[in-house]
Amino acid sequence: MNSRELRWLFAVMLSLGLALLLTGLPLPDVINPWRPAWVPLTLFYWCIALPERVGVLGAWVVGILLDVMHGSLLGQHALGLAFVAFVAVRYHQRIRVYPPIQQAMVVGFLVLLYEAWMLVIYNTMGSRLYSLMFLFSALTSAVLWPWLFVVLRDLRRKAMT
After folding, report:
1. CATH for 59
2. Which of 83, 86, 94, 127 is the most exposed place for a label (fewest CB within 10 A)?
3. Residues 38, 54: Cα–Cα separation, whole Å
4. How far apart are CA 78 and CA 154, in angstroms?
5. Across residues 50-79, what is the average pLDDT?
6. For residue 95, which of 62, 35, 46 has the smallest C-alpha distance?
7. Whether 60 contacts 82, CB under 8 Å
8. What local confidence, expressed as pLDDT, does residue 124 receive?
9. Within a 10 A sphere around the Cβ of 99, how many other Cβ atoms?
10. Positive/negative CA dihedral, 21, 88, 149, 160
11. DSSP annotation string for the chain
């Protein structure tokens, strides 16, 4: 691996590690349903920015790490993140040319599907019972998308030069 490849790999791992840390950050019960889906957002960005390097397999690995971190059913987050990565990689050329507001709507819808999947699994398994307020994170994720996009784009540009 040359230094350029190591830099983009470090940028991806750093941002996903930070997203995992932000996901594990304890929040009060009142605010917790509004927590942005940091990992799917970050993974979505890298899948549309570098679809030849970050894809479904990487999403699966990050999902397994998220499963272990949450102590949830092994593969639950992995399957949800693999779905997000599949859609992002499949349609990356279209999504990249959308204006930020339209990208935010796509991201919000994907996060809504991801969170709905988590809600169904959590409630079916009975490990935790969540209400539909759990889906509010899709709204906050969509609102934060334009800013996260700019931050990660700048990180990618610095890592690729």
Report:
1. 1.10.1760
2. 94
3. 16
4. 27
5. 94
6. 46
7. yes
8. 86
9. 8
10. positive
11. --HHHHHHHHHHHHHHHHHHHHHHS---TTTGGG---HHHHHHHHHHHH-TTTS-HHHHHHHHHHHHHHHT--TTHHHHHHHHHHHHHHHTHHHHHHS-HHHHHHHHHHHHHHHHHHHHHHHHHHTSS---GGGGGHHHHHHHHHHHHHHHHHHHHHHHH-
pLDDT in tens, 107-129: 999 999 999 998 888 888 876 66
Rounded Cα gap, residues 10 and 148, in angstroms: 18
* Cβ-proximal residues to 106 (8 Å cutoff; 6+ apart), any chain: 95, 98
Tokens 């209400």 found at: 131
Task: Report how many domains make up the chain.
Answer: 1
Identify the pLDDT of residue 137.
92
Which tokens hold the place of 109? 């819808």
Residues with Cβ within 8 Å of residue 75, at least 6 apart in sequence: 63, 64, 67
Residue type, 108: G
> Domain range for residue 120?
3-160
